[in-house]
Amino acid sequence: MDTVSRREFLATSTMLLSARSYSRIVGANDRIQIGLIGCGHRSAGHRQMLKLSADTDPNFDLRSVCDLWTVNRQRAVDDAQRLFGHRPKAFQYSEEMLADRELDAVMIATGDHQHARVLAEVVRAGKDCYCEKPMANTVDDAKLAREVVVASDRVVQMGSQWLSCPYQQQVREIIRSGKLGKLVSISQSWNYNGPRWHVPKDDNVAAIRELDTDWKRWLLGRAERPFDPRTYFEFRIFKDFSGGITDQWYSHGSGLAHFYLDTFVPDDTVSNGGIFAWHDVRENPDTFQSVSTFAKSEVLYSYSTTFGNAYGDHTIIRGTRGTLYSPGGEGSPQ
To answer: Are 223 and 259 in contact (CB under 8 A)?
Structure first.
């Protein structure tokens, strides 16, 4: 049987490898070693993804986990023990984990404002990387991440759910086939009924203590401020750390519009919104609407979200010969 070294293999393949490719790897030393940076809710999803992958492509190990908060690290170790039958190494700081020469690839699920800088750190350390969206929420951080990745030979993938969904791929094929005629508009209305991303009695907010984490490190380039457990866990509703709806749901919606149209950037966009429903601790809008035009393809794209009422969620793709209508919110395959 032909064998391929782990380093050579990773340099020419994605992190999610086919069963056929795995069959070419032999020996314990050639098992792909994966680490997790950020061990909160999204990282729990990553572990589930790895568990599902292990059913068909088992030649990897969850080697290590990293999180600033002691409790998250312990939860991740315990969860890995339950899922994979062994306890990974645990680190508080990313540079400690990345110093491990046997580590091949990293999955990032930190706070959104940390993604770009951690991504750059991972790539500089010579590791392949899967990073949750948004890659960045400032232009400077986006440029930093891009420059580091382009200058490297690492495999890097951004996680933007729905683009790998078979349903959404079929939608794009219908559009490409011309069955809808000339496409004229895409309209998404994805809503929620409740104070999204704010949990008044969050157990994590009550549990965390400043001495159990590293607050200054967590800020990672943002302006210094006193330790705030609410900001630590609900960063999506605070302006310094997230765009809120734009970082979270709109990025998925616009990503699908680009996917359908094979076009990356609209020619113009106008947006508006505000805090109209939930006057709590949030700084980011709970109501948002945006309209874009794609001049070359002559398509109008509109997106809206409110957290005040979720009735009538939909995606509508209109062409001169037909319309695709999907009831339901974000990415709904109906």
So the answer is: no
Contacts of 39 (CB under 8 A, 6+ apart): 65, 66, 67, 69, 72, 73, 75, 76, 109
Does the residue 231 lie in any domain? no
Residue ranges of the chain with per-residue pLDDT less than 70: 1-29
Chain position carrying tokens 């793709």: 317
> Angle of helix 251-261 relative to helix 166-177, nearest 10 degrees?
40
Same domain, 25 and 139: yes
Q: How many residues does the chain have?
A: 334
Are 285 and 274 a contacting pair, CB within 8 Å? yes
Give me the number of domains the chain comprises: 2
Q: Quick one: 128 and 181 in the same domain?
A: no
Same domain, 130 and 20: yes
- The alpha helices in 99-250, defined as continuous H runs, are 115-124, 139-150, 166-177, 203-207, 215-219, 229-233, 245
Q: Tell me what pLDDT residue 16 has.
A: 42
